[in-house]
Amino acid sequence: MTGQPLAIRACVFDAYGTLLDFASAAERCRDVLGDQTCQLTMLWRDKQLQYTWMRALQGAHTDFWQVTQDALDFSLEALGIDNTELRARLMDLYRTLDCFAEVPPVLETLKEVGLTTAILSNGTPDMLQASLAHSGIVHLIDPVLSVEEVGVYKTDRRVYQLAVDRLGVAPSDIAFMSANAWDAHAAANFGMTVFWINRTKQPCDRLPGLLHAELSDLTALPERVCLRV
Fold it and tell me: Which residue positions in the chain have pLDDT lower than 70?
């Protein structure tokens, strides 16, 4: 790292793909899915995101649990998988996703230095709490903010304003972390200081919003931020 750590007041994290490994649901069903495991994971995720964007544009909001079911149903049909027991198992597992290995120690370090750690997610409060409890990190995140409070999905500006309002800090005093480039750019365009967690080594998107930094995972984050006093 070069230069001084970024002085901020809060670290706000996207959940799915950033703290929680959405691939872990299908991975735990590899005994049934076999070679289709990765294909289902990616198609399910792509459709899940597409449905959030389309619903936001249409003003036709429904919660993330329903969107996740709809995306799974499409994906299973597209892959020719007709297995009601597998469907139920996958949905149950999506409520208890694993977190990435570096997440607990990173959150512990941030809390130790006095930083507020929060989640800002498309997920419902129930979905988020279940996965945080399963991963053993529920005590390291406060508050947990869901788009259900504003009734629209990211990248609507009302979602990012929710974090500002609830935390009572300026956008620039928030370090926002997301593994989703579209989310990272939207938060940056809103005025947050954004670290893109590029876990899959994707090229940069051509979108508004200047990112502060790109990290391969969250490991180096505590070295890059400090509490503004």
Answer: 1-3
The answer to whether position 55 is within a domain reads yes
Domain that holds residue 115: 6-21+99-227
Determine the pLDDT at residue 1.
Answer: 38
Quote the CA–CA distance of 109 and 69 in Å, as a whole number: 35
Residue 1 lies in a domain: no
- Residues 211, 180 contacting (CB under 8 angstroms): no
Closest to 55 measured CA to CA, from 130, 120, 147, 127? 147
pLDDT at 3: 67
Given a contact cutoff of 8 angstroms between Cβ atoms, the answer to whether 178 and 118 are in contact is no
Q: How many residues does the chain have?
A: 229
DSSP conformation letters of 164-176: HHHHTS-GGGEEE
Q: Where are the alpha helices (DSSP H) in the chain?
A: 24-27, 30-33, 37-58, 64-78, 84-94, 103-112, 125-135, 157-167, 181-190, 221-224
- The encoded tokens of residue 1 equal 């790292």
Q: Report, as residue numbers or ranges, the catalytic residues.
A: 14
- Whether the model pTM is above 0.85: yes
